[in-house]
Write a structure and sequence with these properties.
With 385 residues, the chain is an alpha/beta fold. It has 16 helices and 16 strands. Strands 6-7-8-3-9-10 form a 6-stranded mixed sheet, sandwiched between helices. Strand 9 and strand 10 form a beta hairpin.
Length: 385
């Protein structure tokens, strides 16, 4: 257990970087520190690993005052990951991961075994990576190694200072999910600094929101979203609140049952008649063995029909990549509709069959729900646009 009691840091120039910070972090808890730039997040972390000495207040580790403990021994109980992880370029991945073990006098064989074990933990094949050099890895992979390196000596507490800040959004989300999984398995206490609310919401058991060196609110993500302590927190969460709720909704929640599907073998007149009956302007075209092959749009079908083309509907199927699957987040469906400029997109089941559709109408229902608009809540039963 890690306990901060009235921790305060005044820099020599008079900056009150951390101001009466009190917090108890349980063993195995994932805590994110978040707040605007300059609010004292990094200074707090640096006081934990003793890069910065507090002006007043105490830190207790398992009930014992931090200052009474030997700084070297203390650091052995800590792992540290920063944005610029700085892997050593002339060391292999195995050597980089186990570097702290080497400092601690652990024998080479044991160090390599430990590196392999950690790679496996991150689902990276040891045979593939142990002997590679950092430059052979992508940015995301290097950052994974940075996280593994911090775990090598089996510390109790891991300090992370914007570790994924330099990565592209997709890699970043991937690493966030991996870290969360990893933490569930290794049960380390993690203090994670970020200025990205989405990241905090994704990772934290508890979010500590700071402003001007002080804690404004320290609660679970759910509690912070539901009951922000004040206007500062509310505006800090801002839009992310809505996005978060939309992010929890999956395609399954917003799809409407009645996909208008047609076999690729059908003729254009049949297709037009079917669309008239179903009152839809897009058809989800499937191969004869019921695999989605693309979307056929009313205007394309009409044009081809009027030009007397005797083609089958399958030849007019476009946008095979627009489909989403049942378990995708609803946000992906929105993204697909925007980028393909479609009013309805197909939802595929595990076998590639069109299970349903998402339409603009069904999305309006979700947004209304996320925004807490009363009345017609929940997805409207929509036809294809
Ligand atoms: P954050 O990590 O939230 O961006 P920091 O802990 O880095 O915030 O900084 C908190 C405040 O302390 C800021 O006003 C910053 O300018 C100031 N500060 C940080 N380090 C020093 C230092 N070494 N000397 C003087 N002021 C500092």
């Amino acid at each position: 257990m890690l306990e901060f009691a009235h921790l305060t840091k005044l820099y020599p120039d008079g900056t009150r970087a951390v101001d009466d910070f009190s917090l108890t972090v349980d063993k195995g808890e994932f805590v994110t520190l978040i707040g605007p730039s300059g609010c004292g997040k990094s200074t707090t972390l640096r006081m934990i690993n003793r890069l910065v000495e507090p002006t007043s207040g105490t830190i207790l580790l398992d009930g014992k005052d931090y200052r009474t403990q030997n700084a070297v021994q203390l650091r052995r109980r800590l792992g540290y990951v920063v944005q610029q992880i700085g892997l050593m370029p002339h060391f292999t991945i195995a050597e980089n991961i186990s570097f702290v073990l080497r400092l601690n006098g652990v024998k080479p064989k044991r160090r390599r075994d430990r590196a392999a074990e950690l790679l496996q933990l991150a689902r990276m094949d040891p045979d593939l990576y142990l002997d590679k050099f950092p430059r052979e890895l992508s940015g995301g992979q290097q950052q994974r190694i940075g996280v593994l390196r911090a775990l090598a000596h089996d510390p109790d507490i891991i300090l992370m200072d914007e570790p994924f800040g330099a990565l592209d959004p997709i890699t970043r989300e991937q690493l966030q999910d991996e870290l969360k999984n990893l933490q569930r398995r290794v049960q380390k206490t993690i203090l994670f600094v970020t200025h990205d609310m989405d990241e905090a919401l994704r990772l934290a058991d508890r979010i500590v929101i700071m402003r001007e060196g002080q804690i404004v609110q320290a609660e679970t993500p759910e509690e912070i979203l539901r009951h922000p302590a004040d206007d500062f927190v509310a505006s800090f969460i801002g839009q992310q609140r809505m996005l978060r709720q939309a992010g929890e909704v999956s395609v399954r929640d917003i799809m409407s049952e009645n996909a208008a599907t047609i076999s690729s073998e059908q003729g254009l007149a049949q297709a037009l008649e079917f669309m008239r009956r179903r009152k839809v302007d897009t058809l989800m075209v499937e191969t004869p063995d019921k695999k989605f092959m693309g979307i056929a749009r009313l205007r394309d079908i009409q044009q081809a029909f009027e030009a007397n083309h005797t083609v089958r509907i399958g030849t007019l199927a476009v946008f095979a990549d627009a489909a989403v699957s049942v378990d995708d987040p609803a946000l992906r469906a929105i993204h697909q509709m925007m980028s393909f400029k479609l009013d309805a997109i197909p939802v595929l089941d595990a076998s590639g069959h069109v299970a349903s559709v998402v339409t603009r109408g069904s999305l309006v229902g979700v947004l209304a729900g996320a925004l807490g608009i009363e009345g017609e809540t929940g997805p409207a039963p929509a036809k294809h646009a």
